[in-house]
Structures are given as structure tokens and as C-alpha cells.
Design a protein that fits this description.
CATH superfamily: P-loop containing nucleotide triphosphate hydrolases
CATH class: Alpha Beta
Strand order of the largest sheet: 6-7-8-3-9-10
Distance between the termini: 46 Å
Helix content: 25-40%
CATH topology: Rossmann fold
Strand content: 25-35%
Largest sheet: 6 strands, mixed
Radius of gyration: 18 Å
CATH architecture: 3-Layer(aba) Sandwich
Order of helices and strands: EEEHEEHEHHHEHEHEE
Length: 235
């Protein structure tokens, strides 16, 4: 049986996320393209930050590295005191299921499952009891108590994203990564989704990292990290 070894690093100033010297290159070794270059930052428990910058600045690459979806060529990431680089691919996947939530621009709901079943998925993957009641309660909290048994195709874009928020928060992750969470929504609906996102962030104590082009959404976070050409360009 394979053994998963989790390396715990010292927590600094109660930071849930510590990224140090992250560098990511793509392409051949003789002509590499550096997409992210020596980026470092930290985020306290329960805090929120936005990552901004022009297209191609490295925003989504940084989010993927911080979430353990990809591995850096240089540098390190720890979440909740656990060094992601010390885990193999299976270990990182298990760690994400337990500790990380995701919200995507394209919703990414499972089309063959109802809203309730979509929100139950993270809890069922973790083998937690009471999944149905927890999922129903959270859907009620985001205003979808009367949509539990609707499929994604029967929901508006704003309703689908609210299901996505409930799914992301239902297992009470340490940190949530959101990639353009209001990008596919009109202004009014996007504002409603943002209100729910920050309300759930406040109530749950889950830290929040948002990649966005929207300055109004970014201004609602506690901190804005700006990237340019793959490097930190200020805060």
C-alpha cells in the first residue's frame, strides 16, 4: 500500500497560504517561456485577496500553483502548514479535496446531477455523513431552497454560480480559489454573486483568493496583488 507523507512547515503569523519564489516556465529547455518569475506572497487565515494584471501576466498560472493544480519549476507553496511540494500527485489531490474549494468562471457543474447533488459531491468524496442536509442548508442560504432538484440546464447563469459557491464552501475548506467568478454574469447578477461570496468568506472563515479583471470586485478584498509580465508589479 502506498504511503502518503505530509510534511508540515512552521506557520508564520497564522498565514494559511505561503507562496515563496514561485517560478513557472513552459516550452523547450533551449527556448523556455517564463510565465511566472519569482513571485512570493502570504495570506492570513480568513483573509481575502485579488490577483490582477493584464492578459498573459501569469494570474491563472499563479492560482494553479497556489492550489496545487500544477507544480512550480522553482519555489514552494504551503497551505495550512502543509508543503504541497512534498506530496505526490495523489497526495495533492487528496489534500485539495479536504482543504481547498474552487469557483470557476464557467461554473463547471455536473450536468447530470441536480443542484443538490452537485453540492453534495465534495462531502461524499470525503465520506462525510449528513451530506444531503448540509448541501440543502447551504443552497437555502444562497437563495436556492426552491431549486434543489433542478438540473444545471434548468438554472440561470447566476443560479448556476450560486450552486458553484455552495459546492465550494460546503466542506468548509481552509482556502477558496476563484477564477473570474463573475466573468460570465451581467453586472447586477455578478454583484449578487460577489455579495454571497464575501458573506460566505466572512461567516465560514475560509480564506479567499480571486483572479479577476474587475476592479470593483478586487476592491472588495483585503488586498490586491498586481502582476505584470509574470512578476509582482505592486499592491
Amino acid at each position: 500500500m502506498a504511503m502518503c507523507i505530509i510534511v508540515v512547515v512552521p506557520m508564520e503569523n497564522a498565514n494559511v497560504l505561503i507562496a515563496e519564489g514561485l517560478t513557472r516556465r513552459f516550452g523547450s529547455s533551449d527556448r523556455p517561456l517564463t510565465v511566472l518569475d519569482d513571485v512570493s506572497f502570504a495570506l492570513p487565515h480568513g483573509a481575502s485577496c485579488a490577483i490582477m494584471g493584464p492578459s498573459g501576466a501569469g494570474k491563472t498560472t499563479l492560482l494553479g500553483l497556489c492550489a496545487g493544480l500544477d507544480a512550480p519549476d522553482r519555489g514552494s507553496v504551503s497551505i495550512g502548514g502543509v508543503a504541497l511540494g512534498a506530496l505526490d500527485e495523489e497526495g495533492r489531490a487528496a489534500f485539495r479535496r479536504e482543504n481547498i474549494g474552487f469557483v470557476f468562471q464557467s461554473f463547471r457543474l455536473l450536468s447530470t446531477l441536480t443542484a443538490l447533488e452537485n453540492v453534495m459531491v465534495p462531502l461524499e468524496l470525503l465520506g462525510r455523513g449528513g451530506a444531503r442536509d448540509e448541501a440543502a442548508g447551504l443552497l437555502g442560504r444562497v437563495g436556492l431552497a426552491n431549486r434543489l432538484h433542478h438540473y444545471p440546464a434548468q438554472l440561470s447563469g447566476g443560479e448556476q454560480q450560486r450552486v458553484g459557491l455552495a459546492r465550494a464552501f460546503v466542506h468548509k475548506p481552509k482556502i477558496l480559489f476563484a477564477d473570474e467568478p463573475t466573468g460570465n454574469l451581467d453586472q447586477a447578477t455578478g454583484d449578487q454573486v460577489a455579495d454571497l461570496l464575501f458573506e460566505l468568506n466572512r461567516v465560514s472563515g475560509t480564506a479567499l483568493v480571486i483572479v479577476t479583471h474587475n476592479p470593483e470586485l478586487a476592491a472588495r478584498t483585503g488586498r490586491i496583488i498586481r502582476l505584470s509580465g509574470g512578476r509582482l508589479a505592486g499592491e
